[in-house]
Design a protein that fits this description.
Layout lengths: L2 E11 L1 E6 L10 E7 L10 E3 L4 E2 L9 E2 L13 E7 L4 E5 L4 E5 L6 E5 L4 E15 L1
Antiparallel strand pairs: 1-11, 2-8, 3-4, 3-7, 5-6, 8-9, 10-11
């Protein structure tokens, strides 16, 4: 079985601490991926959703189910699928350098821009990027 590590990056202007609404360990946060078949290379038409709290039946009947929190990214990966793209959606939080908290941030539009009244400055999230590394 291959495990994948998702790494995300974004340009933050006058912001810090971008993360899922209830933190990086939130078992209910939905991570959306585009996947491709490892055999034929066909890309999925729909996103595949994985949460840290999900469990996936193990291919061996004698082994217990696999927790996606412990196995990085499982699900269809045991069936020969590999992630090719991460879909940024809603449910993010971020904090301005002046301390203003923004919750429920929707990044499906690929950027976020507001004006921080407290800090008297514009805030922005842009240039969203993701990368998958194989974890051995």
């Amino acid at each position: 079985m291959v495990n994948y590590l998702l790494m995300i990056c974004a340009d933050l202007e006058n912001l810090t601490n971008l993360e899922p609404h209830d933190g990086c360990d939130d078992p209910n946060f939905s991570y959306l991926f585009k996947v491709k078949c490892g055999c034929c290379g066909e890309l999925s038409q729909k996103e595949t959703c994985v949460s840290l709290g999900d469990t996936v039946p193990n291919s061996s009947e004698r082994e217990p189910p696999i927790s996606s929190k412990n196995a990085s990214f499982v699900g269809g990966m045991e069936l020969g699928f590999e992630p090719v793209d991460f879909i940024f959606g809603d449910g993010w939080k971020v904090e301005s350098i002046a301390g203003t908290k923004y919750e429920g941030v929707d990044l499906s539009g690929e950027d976020f821009a507001e004006y921080d009244e407290k800090g008297e400055c514009p805030v922005m999230i842009s240039n969203l990027r993701s990368k998958f590394d194989v974890v051995k």
